[in-house]
Amino acid sequence: MAARNDDRETRRRRRLDEARKSIHAGQTARRRRDDVRAGIVAVVVIALAVVSQVVYTSSGPGAEQPASTAAPTPTPSATSTGEVPSSDIAEDRVWTGSIVLNDDVPLEISLDGTKAPQATSVLVDLIRSGFYDGTACHRLSDAPSAEFLQCGSANGDGTGDAGFTFGPLENVPSDGTYPAGTIAMARGDDPNSQSTQFFITYGETTLDTSTGGYTVVGSVTAGLDGLASSIADGGVEPPAEGQESTDGPPVVETTITAATIE
Question: What is the pTM of this model?
Fold first, then answer.
């Protein structure tokens, strides 16, 4: 009898031991899965932060470009994507119209279809379709040598477009000087990455010529003082408490409330 009891107790202890091992293995596996998930989440968060920063700084004047010791980049042949409006829209003529910011800052504009037919055609088509109505001007620079307001992203934060990019560059100033009132197309590293974004200089602006420059598509013919006093004079949002910046979102939130062309 004692032997049978000893056998039962041995089997009971063995089952308990096996159960503890099974529970421990399960807990270990769960901890490993949780660690893996946490690692993946951390990587995704970091990646999104990096992508967000790249998206914001890689379109328009002042974007980081590869170092170059060569002569200014020659204008490349066009490599467009998506359905780009036909360059024939420009009709080889000068177009006039207006852009109104925040309801009370009207700008009279002129777009030169003789010097920049492709870029003019794009802006004419986008204005006609109402693409810009209600979009934000997400970027302001008030550096001494770079005074401009950048607008035209579909999402109003420097991201989004109308589903196309285009090139080549047109009507680029050889000396990198963009006088006050210039309207030029923003772009990323690739000269053929022009899309819907543009910038307006409210003071003389000098930009790097080594990467090809920026297409000058037209000019502001009236109302520039209002842009400077009502929007640019408000400055740029500081990146962090106690810091200053010359390039970032404007303190005065700015929206294109109307745009016309004829």
Answer: 0.74
